[in-house]
Amino acid sequence: APEDELSRSSHSNPGKSLVNGIKTNPASNSPKSSLSVPMGPPVYVDLAYIPNHCSGKNTDPEFFKRVRASYYVVSGNDAANGEPSRAVLDALLEGKSQWGENLQVTLIPTHDTEVTREWYQQTHEKQQELNIMVLASSSTVVMQDESFPACKIEF
C-alpha cells in the first residue's frame, strides 16, 4: 500500500533534521536559509511572462535557470519604476548560459523602450551566442492560428 511506502521512507533517515530537503535549524543566523527553496529540475514551458513587468524585484538568473521557456514576454513601459529592468534582461543571458543546451529562445518585448533597445544593441553578440532572438515590439506574433501585435500580449 502507498501508506506503507510513505511511512518507511520517512523513517529511513533517523536523526536527520530535514524537512523537504531543507535543514531545519532555528538557531541559524541566516534568515534566508529557512526560506530557501530546494533546487529541483528545471521547468520547460512554451511561454513565460517575466514577473512584475520585468522589474528586478524578484527575477534573477535563478528564475531563468529554472524556468526555461521558448518565449519570454517582457512587458513594462515605466522607466521611473525600473520597468523593464536592465538587470533582469542581463539575468536572462546569465541564466540561459547555464542551460547546457542551446535551445532557441525568443524574447518578446511588449513596448519599445530605451532599456530594451540599449540592452539589445550592447549584448547582441551574446544573444546570438546563446541562440536568443529578440522581436521588435512592433512585431506580429502568431499563436494558435491567430496573429496580433506583440504589444497586445499582456496577462
Automatic annotation (TrEMBL):
<dbReference type="GO" id="GO:0003779">
    <property type="term" value="F:actin binding"/>
</dbReference>
<dbReference type="GO" id="GO:0005875">
    <property type="term" value="C:microtubule associated complex"/>
</dbReference>
<dbReference type="InterPro" id="IPR026074">
    <property type="entry name" value="MAP1"/>
</dbReference>
<feature type="region of interest" description="Disordered">
    <location>
        <begin position="1"/>
        <end position="37"/>
    </location>
</feature>
<dbReference type="GO" id="GO:0007409">
    <property type="term" value="P:axonogenesis"/>
</dbReference>
<dbReference type="InterPro" id="IPR036866">
    <property type="entry name" value="RibonucZ/Hydroxyglut_hydro"/>
</dbReference>
<protein>
    <submittedName>
        <fullName>MAP1A protein</fullName>
    </submittedName>
</protein>
<dbReference type="GO" id="GO:0045202">
    <property type="term" value="C:synapse"/>
</dbReference>
<dbReference type="GO" id="GO:0005829">
    <property type="term" value="C:cytosol"/>
</dbReference>
<dbReference type="GO" id="GO:0005874">
    <property type="term" value="C:microtubule"/>
</dbReference>
<dbReference type="GO" id="GO:0031114">
    <property type="term" value="P:regulation of microtubule depolymerization"/>
</dbReference>
<feature type="compositionally biased region" description="Polar residues">
    <location>
        <begin position="22"/>
        <end position="36"/>
    </location>
</feature>
<dbReference type="GO" id="GO:0000226">
    <property type="term" value="P:microtubule cytoskeleton organization"/>
</dbReference>
<dbReference type="GO" id="GO:0030425">
    <property type="term" value="C:dendrite"/>
</dbReference>
<dbReference type="GO" id="GO:0043025">
    <property type="term" value="C:neuronal cell body"/>
</dbReference>
<dbReference type="GO" id="GO:0008017">
    <property type="term" value="F:microtubule binding"/>
</dbReference>
<dbReference type="GO" id="GO:0016358">
    <property type="term" value="P:dendrite development"/>
</dbReference>
